[in-house]
């Protein structure tokens, strides 16, 4: 009997919580990103091709405000071809899905990003060539400020990929971005 009462109480509480929850709102935006692909050659085979490919690129974002403290968000980092060491280039694109816990501190919204990202990298040059796609855990932090009811600005840092022995080639790869942009919330 007590199990039935507990089940009824939990069911009623869940129903009331769902009934009082606001419908999700959607948002979309774009950012200018300082995107960096860091290559560390750990193979020990000369020549050492370690270096950083630093690109300024666009990042597209879209998401859904699910709860007062939680959003779901998708990132697409558009590819840019940049040199990371002498005569070696990499073209990196990223797609990521994130849970975005957040809290309002005055007018500012502080948020974290925890999720999964996939990086596609096309290498070309005298010492390395080919294409490789790797996936893994991604995370970041940021701040968002509302300008109007629907328009806000944000700045964040995200680590999209950190892989050792990337593609079995004896290189370690880290993809990071510092981004600033605007979001439009559809209300």
Q: Can you describe what's shown?
A:
The protein is mostly beta strands and 187 residues long. The chain has one domain: Beta Barrel (Porin), CATH 2.40.160.20. It is built from 1 helix and 8 strands; from the N terminus they run H-E-E-E-E-E-E-E-E. The protein has one helix at 2-20; strands at residues 25-41, 51-67, 70-85, 88-105, 108-125, 130-146, 151-163, 171-186. Strands 1-2-3-4-5-6-7-8 form an 8-stranded antiparallel barrel. The longest helix has 19 residues, at 2-20. The radius of gyration is 21 Å and the shape is elongated.
Summarize this structure briefly.
The protein is mainly β and 187 residues long. It is built from 1 helix and 8 strands; from the N terminus they run H-E-E-E-E-E-E-E-E. The longest helix has 19 residues, at 2-20.
Brief descriptors of the model:
mainly beta; 8 strands; 187 residues; elongated; 71% strand; 1 helix; Porin; single chain
CATH class: Mainly Beta
- Give a short account of the largest sheet: 8 strands, antiparallel, barrel
Please provide the ordered H/E string of secondary-structure elements.
HEEEEEEEE
Q: Helix proportion of residues, in percent?
A: 10-25%
Q: What is the averaged pLDDT score?
A: 90
Unreliable runs, pLDDT <50, ≥5 residues?
12-19
**Count of helical stretches:** 1
